[in-house]
Amino acid sequence: MNRGIKWSLTFMSAILIIWSGYSTEFDFSKFLRLGKSVEFVWNKWLPIDWSIFPVALKSAIITLQIAILGTFIGMLIALPLSFLAAFNTAPSAYLYHLTRSILNFLRSVPEIVLGLILVPSLSLGPFPAVMAIAIHNIGVLGKLISELIEAADTGQQEAVTSVGASKLFVILYGILPQIIPNILSQYFYRLEVGVRASLILGFIGGGGIGNMLFIDFKVFNYQAVACEVLVIMLLVLIVDYVGTLVRKKVI
Fold first, then answer.
1. Long-range contact list for 79-83, CB < 8 A, 24+ apart?
2. What is the pLDDT of residues 35-76, one digit of tens each?
3. pTM of the model as a whole
């Protein structure tokens, strides 16, 4: 890259950052007011109301269950679709473009919007949250896995093809063994994201600890909120630790 292009890119990046800062009313002087937030937490959130800890823990487990089931259903449907969305395994160009378009559409709709769409038909509770996470994950995991399929080493596929195996056996023995560790890695990453998404879905009646947090915020029960936030942090840390551990083991 020559010097002129480097300077042009630097200049354009600076313009974009200044433009974004102007539109979002970014103001360094407002950082001086952060002390008020600390004062608010100190005065209103303490002492922490530990009496709700058992209930918060039970709700956190529901949040985890929403994420586990939603991510699993998403993976189950995304896996076969991803072979239709990969150019080297799709039966035709038409199916390839159609599946890609469907995955792009599903991925572009946030979980909270899907939750709002599903609540009128599935009613309030964890079930619409599970389905919202599942539908969004079909789009995300479908695209990620299709890219793994396209990047798979062709040597192993050619070895299976050379013995006269059908396309199905090429997928089963030439592609899947190569990409399964990365699929598991993507699954646990999406599970971590699913936990955070299920918290947000709790705000629209999706159950779990997100729902508790929303209600306690609305009634200004900040000491209970403090306990719930700590339980959420604990949940996210555990999921993150387990996910990282599993990813290290399988890759």
1. 79/141, 79/145, 79/183, 81/138, 81/142, 82/141, 82/142, 82/143, 82/144, 82/145, 82/146, 82/148, 82/149, 83/146, 83/149, 83/171
2. 777 777 777 778 877 888 888 888 888 888 888 888 899 999
3. 0.78
